[in-house]
Amino acid sequence: MARIVMKFGGTSVADVDRIKNVARRVKTEHDAGNEVAVVVSAMAGVTNQLVDYCRQVSPLYDAREYDVVVATGEQVTIGLLAMALQDLGVAARSWCGWQVPVMSDGVHGKARILEIDTADMVRRMKDGQVAVVAGFQGLGPDNRITTLGRGGSDTSAVALAAALQADRCDIYTDVDGVYTTDPRIVAKARKLDKITYEEMLELASLGAKVLQTRSVEMAMKHRVRVQVLSSFVDAPGTLVCDEDEIVEKELVSGIAYSRDEAKITLVGVPDRPGVAAAIFGPLSDASINVDMIVQNVSEDGTSTDLTFTVTKADLDRAVKVLTDKRDELKFARLVPDSNVVKVSVIGVGMRSHAGVAQTMFSALATKGINIQVISTSEIKVSVLIAEEYTELALRALHTAYGLDAA
Amino acid sequence: MARIVMKFGGTSVADVDRIKNVARRVKTEHDAGNEVAVVVSAMAGVTNQLVDYCRQVSPLYDAREYDVVVATGEQVTIGLLAMALQDLGVAARSWCGWQVPVMSDGVHGKARILEIDTADMVRRMKDGQVAVVAGFQGLGPDNRITTLGRGGSDTSAVALAAALQADRCDIYTDVDGVYTTDPRIVAKARKLDKITYEEMLELASLGAKVLQTRSVEMAMKHRVRVQVLSSFVDAPGTLVCDEDEIVEKELVSGIAYSRDEAKITLVGVPDRPGVAAAIFGPLSDASINVDMIVQNVSEDGTSTDLTFTVTKADLDRAVKVLTDKRDELKFARLVPDSNVVKVSVIGVGMRSHAGVAQTMFSALATKGINIQVISTSEIKVSVLIAEEYTELALRALHTAYGLDAA
Questions:
Q1: Residue B164 has pLDDT above 90, yes or no
Q2: Could you tell me how many CB contacts below 8 A there are between chain A and chain B?
Q3: I need a labelling partner for B150 at 20 to 30 A (CA). Which of A78, A106, B72, B406 fits?
Q4: What is the mean pLDDT of chain A?
């Protein structure tokens, strides 16, 4: 017997039949003697419709009223799922965010959960009642409805699991787990049985859209064991857990990529103190996030080349901001390039093993792929390469790190 | 300067354009220096869709979860209307039932409002903020969402007006007021400037679907001045108010009809004490409501005929209940008839004037219309006639009581 939180996203509750399917899944866990809380999203498409209404009424809508409108999506789902469970003979009750309550800060539209009072819910769960909880929503300090921002239901589920001290938080989605890399590109990609929080966090922020980054951060902070699994296939998924739970650690757990990058090179920048601040200050003021940065060694001691990346969406604005400052920055040329991809190898094992980066560089060199920028963290090595090599690089690295499925 | 409650039904907020139109109406009252609270229904069609979801999930759905689902309809409208008001520069804030709170009993699906705490709302209204309140919903004793039953938004508005001690409660709808009779049948029907609570109550319960009966009862109890007017036409409507406010009382204010009646005659019922109880007891046990009852004078002192009416929807069940008891009730024949209509003349003036009923009987006799059953109350005379005479009877009575428009 365990206490578990199950979370189902919008595609898993897209219509009445799928809601009934979810009810059957919940019943199975409940019948096994578990205490179960279920967190659900709005039926697929509903939130978009509600957001669209808001935009039609007022382009500059009040975020507090936006929250009132969009929070109804999850409210419909909890009522219907509670009914579907009762119809299967399972005692169930719905909980809106304000009823639990899920206390949040007052930043409407992207609130953060502060505290969840689960006393009443726990009492009812111990009596065998399934708690059906609206994801994505909370109650602000002024007694008004808040929402956590798009994708916030993952965070709701993990926060609830933490508050309930649940044994596990199962995130049901439309993929059946976390893979060593994108299986649409690398046919030999393997589903991972387990992955550490740290690795999942890197994967999540690097574009593997399985879990929302904030939910992984929260799981890591509160040590919530999160399982990612399919709501349509009945099979174990991937457990995101503490490093200690993983007996056989791999050197590299996964290979991620992001096509969302663009590169800017400033050629002939004066090589003097303060030049980096002069360049990145205006970008920061324009809310443009800079990721990788490389400053080349100056050849003549008077000028240097500076290369960095921004998101593709920010590229045009970044070019304009810098061009406007050209007189002040005194660079010779600005070379933008959006035909790049960031490829990263991730693994907690590399903390204690040398040579991980070298394996990457060799594998890419063997395939004739030029590395444009490199950045590293404790558990990650990222390189920027020309976009056309994406598939070739992923396959080569997957093999080089011994990740290919047998 | 006054404090007013404005209520807009589903057709008045059916889409974004109509919500913006409502916002302009509210702005006009607000700009005139009034303190304004607005009560709104769900966008037309939304509640039906939500009810349909519930039925699809579980035919025997839990009323508590039903309330969770259907209450979202009004929640969407309040958020959108608050935004639309803000967009016009009017300070506004939405209020769900649980936020006010509108405390109700725990009879989910058809709850009754117990108390409305308006302290916070009044403070904000005095500061110039328009309160946009979800109709149709409340908060039960167990901190769960309740709904008041279909059409409950009228009741919400009147209850809020009572709690706010509002000067007026304006019910905006798709008709422009209360008429002396159905203008689709009688071309000379006139819009009434004023009507008493008592008369409106009779009209409402007799099928003039302008206001929900419960809302009129509540208005009468708390002496809330209710105005019925069109949300599409800019003109005064009909004021439902205390008798004292009406200087020139008419003998008869309106003529109502209901096609929702069916007649049952039991021929040859033994004429002995207890027979009425023996007949109407089983009908009551089956939750069948009996309206008009006439017992004919017994000719031979041993048997009598009994005629009464039920709703058309209950006719078949009523016939079955009585037929099943035939051995016990010992009637000779049961004659059902659903081709009847109930026509009623209503007016507080008839309290102090004789001859009102006689005018009715004469007018119908002149047109050759046979009266099958008669019932009267202090301010009403109702007759049951063959349905085919509906239009003829309404026009004759409208003329006979001097109600025709000039």
A1: yes
A2: 107
A3: A78
A4: 93
User: Among all residues of chain B, which has the CA nearest to that of A15?
Assistant: B53
Chain A residues in contact with B67 (beta carbon < 8 A): 79
Write the secondary structure of A53-84 as one string of H (helix), E (strand) and C (coil).
HHHHHCCCCCHHHHHHHHCHHHHHHHHHHHHH
Count of alpha carbons within 13 angstroms of residue B276, beta-carbon side: 9
The single residue listed with the structure tokens 């809601």 is A19
The b/e string for B136-149 (b: 16+ C-beta within 10 A; e otherwise) is bbbbbeeebbbbbe
Residues of B in contact with A51 (CB under 8 A): none
CATH number at residue A154: 3.40.1160.10
Nearest CB neighbour to B58, from listed A53, A57, A84: A84
Amino acid identity of residue B172, one-letter, is: Y
Tokens encoding A53: 């209404």
Give the other-Cβ count within 10 Å of A234's Cβ: 10
At CB < 8 Å, which residues of chain A contact B? 16, 19-20, 50, 53-54, 56-58, 60-62, 64-69, 71-72, 75-76, 78-80, 82-84, 86-87, 93-94, 96, 98-99, 143-145
With CA atoms as reference, the chain B residue closest to A43 would be B53
**Using an 8 Å Cβ cutoff, are A76 and A94 in contact?**
no
Number of domains within chain A: 1
Q: How many CB atoms lie within 10 A of CB A16?
A: 18
Give the residue ranges of DSSP H helices in A32-147.
Answer: 46-57, 63-70, 72-87, 119-126
Give me the pLDDT at residue A204, please.
76
Nearest CA in chain A to B14: A53
User: DSSP states of A336-373 as a string?
Assistant: EE--EEEEEEE-GGGGS-S-HHHHHHHHHHHTTPPP-E
- The shortest C-alpha distance from A303 to chain B (Å) reads 53
Task: Please tell me the predicted confidence (pLDDT) of residue A19.
Answer: 97
B→A contacts (Cβ < 8 Å), by residue, are 16, 19-20, 50, 53-54, 56-58, 60-62, 64-69, 71-72, 75-76, 78-80, 82-84, 86-87, 93-94, 96, 98-99, 143-145
Confidence of residue A352 (pLDDT cuts 50, 70, 90): confident
Domain that holds residue A11: 3-174
Residues of chain A positioned with their CB less than 8 A from the CB of B54: 79-80, 83
The neighbouring-strand residues paired with A340 are: A386
Contact between A57 and B143 using a beta-carbon 8 Å cutoff: no
Query: Could you give the CA distance from residue A47 to residue A16 in angstroms, rounded to a whole number?
Result: 16
pLDDT tens string B65-118: 999 999 999 999 999 999 999 999 999 999 999 999 999 999 999 999 999 999
What average pLDDT does the structure give for chain B? Answer: 93
Could you give the CA distance from residue A319 to residue A315 in angstroms, rounded to a whole number? Answer: 6
The structure tokens listed for B11 are 């057709």
B50 within a domain of the structure (yes/no): yes
Answer whether B334's CB lies under 8 Å from B266's CB: yes
Of all residues in chain B, the one with the smallest CA distance to A133 is: B68
Omega within 30 of 0 (cis) for the link into A101: yes
SS3 of B297-360: the string is CCCCCCEEEEEEEEEHHHHHHHHHHHHHCHHHHCCCEEEEECCEEEEEEECHHHHCCCCHHHHH
In a domain, B73, yes or no: yes
Domain-located, residue B74: yes
pLDDT of residue A208: 63
| Domain assignment present for A31 | yes
